[in-house]
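Our preliminary data section would be incomplete without showing what the modeling component actually yields. Below, a chain of 241 amino acids is followed by its predicted structure, encoded as tokens that our downstream tools consume directly.
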Amino acid sequence: MILTCPQCATRYQVDAGKFPPSGRNVRCAKCGHVWHQPGPVPEPDPEAEITTHEPLPPPSHASAATTAQGIAHAPLSAMRAQLAQEEHEEGRASSLGRVAVAAGWLLLVVLVFAIGWVAVAFRDNVATWLPQTISLYAAAGLSVNPRGVDIADVAYQRRIEDGQVVLAVSGTIVNRSAHELSVPLVRVTLFDADKHELYHWTFVPNVSTLQPGQATHFHTRLSSPPAGTHDLEVRFAKAGE
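Predicted structure:
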């Protein structure tokens, strides 16, 4: 395949297999001009209609001399070197593109893991800011405490005082947050063996606020608890309870 520079008319003998059907950009090794060279014309279909064309006139002596001079000034090796360099640059750009895509996926995976770790490690804070996430944490089997205060070390005891049965309940209220919090009312609920509520009552803890990390002990009692009491629950009272 012969290429002719449209700027200086220098001609080059190149391998047609280096050019796709859509063509490619080439640069003249003599004058540096860059142009788009179409790909080689496909072989004619032998079954297609055969048409005849008038033969072209032979080239003049001046054009033949110009062609010979151009080929003499631009050896075939220079054109091949240029094509090889362009192929090398295209391959390098393709490799850099693949590396960029892989780095992007890796960054995305690291970001997802980081968000997941924060969502689990600071789930109490997340539940405080976004209460609708409490049900998601519960579905995942993770306990959350959006209040920031917690009830711990609950214990109860039945005893006889002045000939009457008394149920004594005790425990600790802890502020697990990083700032001062108010202490809500505490509700105690009694259940039978089938988890049916038998009785409940609320009481006010002995402090109204707790500093970060501070804890307070509570003690409450009920005289003559209902017969059939099998279990109890101690929690913070909800609004309206």
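The mean pLDDT is 82. The two ends are 92 Å apart (CA to CA). Preliminary results of this kind motivate Aim 1 of the renewal.
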